[in-house]
Amino acid sequence: MSTLSYTHGASAVPLLGETIIQNLRRTVRRVPDHEALVVPYQGYRATYREFWHQVGLVARGLLAEGVAQGDRVGIWAPNRYEWVLIQYATAGIGAILVNINPAYRTHELEYALQQSGTSLLIHARGFRSADYVAMVSDVRSRCPDLRASLILEDDWERLLATAAKVSNEALAEREGGLQFDDPINIQYTSGTTGFPKGATLSHHNILNNGYFIGKALGYSENDRVCIPVPFYHCFGMVLGNLACTTHGACMVVPGEAYDAPAVLRTVQEERCTSLYGVPTMFIGELDHPDFGRFDLSSLRTGIMAGSPCPVEVMKRVQSDMHMPEVTICYGMTETSPVSTQSHTDDPLDKRVRTVGSAHPHIEIKVIDPETGRVVPRGSPGEFCTRGYSVMLGYWNNEAATQEAIDTARWMHTGDLAVMDDDGYLNIVGRIKDMVIRGGENVYPREVEEFLYAHPAVSDVQVIGVPDDKYGEEIMAWVKLRPGAQVTGEELRDFCRGKIASYKIPRYWKFVDGFPMTVTGKVQKFKMREAAVEELGLATAAAVQTA
User: Fold this and answer.
1) Model confidence over 270-307: pLDDT tens digits?
2) CA separation for the pair 438, 471 (Å, rounded)
3) CA distances from 498 to 266, 312, 450, 489 (A)
4) What CA–CA distance (Å, rounded) separates 387 from 416?
5) Does pTM surpass 0.90?
6) For residues 511 and 477, what is the distance between their CA atoms, to the nearest angstrom?
7) Which residues contact 12 (CB under 8 A, 6 or more apart)?
8) CA dist., res. 26 & res. 13, Å (int)
9) Strands 224-226 and 126-127: what pairing?
């Protein structure tokens, strides 16, 4: 009988049974004089002792503003040191931090504020071309729960000054009433249809996930972690911030948003030992014309996550970026976020061709999405996960919660995965992204991985488009390496005899980039929409039919 696709992360290391602020206090006592947070572009540096003092000031300032336990406090800003202080200060007073995507505009902002019942919004004056002040003014009258807003550039010092109105004893009293299962964070998932849903996470969810991520990477107070991924997302605030503070490592922020040369420069100047990013970020760094001028020898580890990690890119990161211990993580906001991670000492093949094995204290299984039965190892199916990391639910949306989490508390991810004999997982795509061409199932990830091996290809995304004869046809969007030239017919020739003919793309589109979320996730539904419209035109110069 075949071994079924189920395993769990057995661990002798216990879960942390404490709140975020209790854990931070222990770290501060252990390494008070080590740097906790460095934001060079703002000229900001703080040791753990200084960081603790500033978190306390912000927490008392929020109490002076009338923030009660369970109140929702929105944060709408790019990466900056104030964001981190607010993250820990809200945790310390039991307020629920509502992460608002910096890319949101009025329609999305209004929805998030209304749906969460945010009562206090802390925001930047703006980001890039967006005027946050004007947008807040526009939606305010339609958000009845929003009683106040603070502008970081204008009101930050006033917030700190109001801390004098609240005693340390009052802050301690508030903290004493907190429990680690309390909700502490709402993160809105970027759905492809309809409005986003607010994944509600507890201290226990995200503190433990950050802790075990840091353990997997071997973090200590000697590590300095470069975090170019956004704080509003779990990648930044959990894999980044909480993985650092649970181990006494230093959070290093290279800029308010991703910029390849800023990342490379920050790693060099701050002697970072770890670097994070989605695959497109690492590709941007590796392909930057000045890449070879930067000294990255201080690096040893890091995380590549957020979307499928191309094997060839992973190999280049390990060798060219001096990151032999880089790991891949897989997860989703609803699971705090990481469910699987490769180990720094895994065999090379496991580290470049899988998303690792089950995280400590996490159960994983792969099921037939039609029947719900666990499939044999080696067979594709829907990835499900269960354990401490599964969210409390979607905020004020019981129907969506029940749709995502079954009665046995398994979170259904919607991702297609294959578990190997050793319990390692390979993500082969989204259930909705799988292409069915003439009755044959085609997993875009498999075709993408093959095309990455072509020397002219820097990045590639494969989608399905409607077809009268086969139901769906394969289309590849290709980003070429700088200076490289290749045609769709040449890429088709590259595929012939090496992958099944039904997997070879019929359509080839050459692009400079892909539609993406702020966190670097490729939006394939937008690619499909664009392709359907473009292929319907008589003249589609950018699309080559091989």
Assistant:
1) 999 999 998 889 999 999 999 999 999 999 999 998 77
2) 6
3) 42, 17, 9, 15
4) 20
5) no
6) 7
7) none
8) 17
9) unpaired
